[in-house]
Amino acid sequence: MSAIPFHPFRSRVRMPVRAALRLAPLGDIWHKPALSGVAALAVVLLALLLAGRLDLTLYASAGAMCALYGHGLPYAARARALGWVVLGMLAGTAAALVTAALTDSVAVRVAVAALLAGLHKAVCDATRIGPPGNVVLTFIAASAAFVPDQRLADVPVHVGLGVLGGLVAWAVGMAPGLLRPDGPERVAVARALEATARLLHARDADPGRGKGGDAQQERHAAATAVNAAWQTLLRAGDQRAGLRRLLVRAESVAVTGVGGRGGDAGTLLAWAHELRKGRPVPEAPVCDAPTQAAEQAELAGIAAEQAERAGPAGGAAERVARKRLARSPIALLARWWRVVVMVAGGAALAGWVSMALGVGRPYWAVVTAAAVFAANTTMSWSRALQRVVGNLLGVALFTLVVLVTRWGAVALVVAVLVMQFVTEAAITRNYWLGSVFVAPMAMLMTEFAGAEPVSALVADRWLDTCLGAAAGLLACVLLPDRRAAARVRDGLERLERLVGEPLTGGRVARDRLRAALVELREAADIAAGEWWSAALPQERIAAAERAGHHRLAELST
């Protein structure tokens, strides 16, 4: 394909309101972080309640809140990820506590909290740790930076409480593996099967045989789900042969969009249901000989790749890669400098304005600004709107709940745990709905250190929310991602190059092509929402995606 230059005109970006507030279906695994978060937090709060030291809640909950992370990872990978999350959480908390002990300057404390917010955002985006991302880390660290009467000698004890909470979080996060050690892999494969079934339904409903917008979206969703499932299974080692066979069948159907390969939509959905219910892994029926041979060859290639990775050479290469990554924090910061500067700048601006207005808790503005930043300007606008709407309703809910929580410490603990549980369900439907319960929970957390006038808490929260949202959006507008269009161009050229290569390479070629399709669509979606972005060659992108899916089908025959 001939190269078509990008047009140097600014793309139009719409700031939708209705779409930003629309409710999505309930998340499929919302109950897992909900139950884990409540269990870890309950252990911590009940222990402090019995000890009569609920004033230490902030420090212990710093570790306990880590139980919200890693629920999409296989348990071996989850064990490592949770360890790193706890370490990152406690490092940020320790830095904030030292700052609080060394200075009474609100401006300095805001600056430190804002810098930590920028680092949290960059690291979470770079590692793709997943929800709840940087927000919980920033909330705990920013709160710790404003602990009153903090002494340097107390920092080790307070961080030690965080370590104990982190151990509880790690144990809670790993405990389900004792009952269903392949749970995350089952969910990932089930999602791929369900996405492939939706693709078949879209093709059946499309008289153009899958060339319409809905079918194109479902094709991308199926490719994304299959790609994510492969990443999950490969992390899990070589113990999931049955799941791999189902995923290979889903991949065969996804790339062709035809259900005649032993996997019609109804069958795929039935398999997904069996996986989610923890029942025995279904057996894919035998299909036509060429397809069966291709699937067996792919499974054999996967097994050989796993054996190579597990061998001395593969292990040595992996250790070398880890050492290089550990030695290159500067390279990581260089790549993510814009995120650090944008988040830290917006958070600091919000906190300093809040301080100038005499608000008692400027760290709430810091957290709100950090929570606003998303992949592009349009998504950041949506997140800001959701945050403002959710917090407005949340402070109203707080004024009702606080009447009950002030009956006693037990009522306060129960209210916080209930809010934590409901938040995880609500936030999967829309961020604003989750914020309705996050806001009162954050306000109730301040009650552990002592009751304060409700009117002051409400005024501080509402003002800081508005300031944080405004400052976050301002930073997004002033520091747009000017490389967004360049990443689309690079992804487009990579996909076109892969499409033009000979039909060789087997599974490796399919993996590269599928990853290129997913990356191009993600880059295009992000760039389309950036207000200072070159106009995208949409026709060329669509043509490359069609050619990529066609070539993917050829590689699977």
Content-based structural category: mainly alpha
Ends distance: 24 Å
Radius of gyration from the alpha-carbon trace, in angstroms: 25 Å
Helix share of residues?
over 70%
Segments where pLDDT lies below 50 for 5+ residues? 1-12, 308-327
String of helices and strands: EHHHHHHHHHHHHHHHHHHHHHHEH
How do the helices and strands line up, and which of them pair or pack?
Blueprint: E1 7-10, H1 18-21, H2 31-51, H3 57-64, H4 75-102, H5 106-127, H6 134-145, H7 155-174, H8 183-205, H9 213-235, H10 241-256, H11 265-276, H12 289-310, H13 312-326, H14 329-335, H15 337-356, H16 362-372, H17 377-405, H18 409-426, H19 431-445, H20 454-478, H21 484-499, H22 506-528, E2 534-535, H23 538-555
Antiparallel strand pairs: 1-2
Helix pairs in contact: 2-3, 2-7, 2-18, 3-6, 3-7, 4-5, 4-6, 4-7, 5-6, 5-15, 5-16, 6-16, 8-9, 8-10, 8-11, 9-10, 9-22, 10-12, 15-16, 15-20, 16-17, 16-20, 17-18, 17-19, 17-20, 18-19, 21-22, 21-23, 22-23
Key structural traits:
Integral membrane bound transporter domain-containing protein, mainly alpha, transmembrane, 73% helix, membrane, Memb_transporter_dom, globular, two-stranded antiparallel sheet
